[in-house]
Amino acid sequence: MVVARADVHSHGPAYWRSLKQQDFRLPAETPLLPLAIEATELLGSTDPELRDEIGYDSFVAWVYRDQRLAPAELNRLRVILVRNAAHGLGQIEDDSLFLRSFSVLVLSVFAAQDLKVPFLDATGFGDLVELGVHSLTDERDLRGYVLNKGWGHATAHCADLLRFLARSPRLSREQQALIVEAIARRLQTAGQVFTWGEDARLAHTLAALAHRADADPIPFNAWFSGMQQQHARVWSGKFDPSLYVRERAQLNTLSELAADLESDTTGGGTQDIRAALRALRAATR
User: Fold this and answer.
1) Where do the domains of the chain lie?
2) I want to staple 224 with a disulfide (CB 3.0 to 4.6 A). Which of 4, 155, 191, 280 is the partner?
3) Rounded CA Rg of the chain
4) % of the chain exceeding 90 in pLDDT
5) Full DSSP string of 163-216
6) In this predicted structure, what is the pLDDT of residue 262?
7) Under a CB-based contact definition with an 8 Å cutoff, are residues 282 and 249 in contact?
8) Rounded-to-integer distance, Cα 285 and Cα 148, Å
């Protein structure tokens, strides 16, 4: 596991379960950074309670609910989590998935906190966008729920990180395009139709981009235009199931997006995206 352990005392499961029983509320004088660094290790556990209900939930409590960590401490943790999010990237169906996926999920909490109380500088913000994009497109272990080990959900967790980044006023138009292109590429290359809610989570990220005041319709239009061209290939000549799966995966996510956008009367880029999506859905019925 690629984690920072130097000068950090390691507590056993019983200690962490006691913190969970206390809803992770600790006296104000308790230094939290050492505990938070230790909690990054729990994110790689194959025990779903330690990983999800304790490791992840402790960060939600300390970073977002209680705001107990200073900007310098958050950024120190961010560096650890970004490194851990790349651990074993490219592996297929091994336990390295959990550290990667849950490190990304915790970083989504950091991105949410940055919306509330900014602490990321331009470089730190850009690094998170780059991480989210590359983790989404390069992840090869696409398991949603793993028997006896709980949620893997790397695709959904990447979508969560990118959704909060997509809401940030500091997101550039170039970064908007990177996120749209990464989502399209993930759906096109997954080789499967997602069944564990990933399509809805990806749609939420696309909706966050589409709802921006500066929403850029260009990457959406390019994606939808390409899909219309690919649609003809699905139904011409000998049927190729892989082409159908590729299209179905994209259409499932875009159906979720359409439902969101139909309730939004915003003009500008949002209106253009909504119109282009309606045209795509009409062409692929």
Assistant:
1) 1-171, 215-285
2) 280
3) 20
4) 91
5) HHHHT-TT--HHHHHHHHHHHHHHHHHS-S---SSHHHHHHHHHHHHHTSTT--
6) 85
7) no
8) 39
